[in-house]
Design a protein that fits this description.
Transposase, mainly beta
Length: 41
């Protein structure tokens, strides 16, 4: 796993675009503030 430097309160999130069979087609990354994230219940 690659270690990246971040600013306090920020994190890198990694996700993948999947095919209908579940194969990873594209990797997507975004840098977000933890404070701005909300959990769906």
């Amino acid at each position: 796993m690659e270690q990246r430097l971040t600013c306090h309160g920020w994190v890198w999130l990694t996700g993948y675009v999947l095919s209908a069979t579940g194969e990873a087609l594209e990797k997507r990354e975004i840098f977000v503030q933890l404070e701005g994230l909300q959990r769906n219940k």
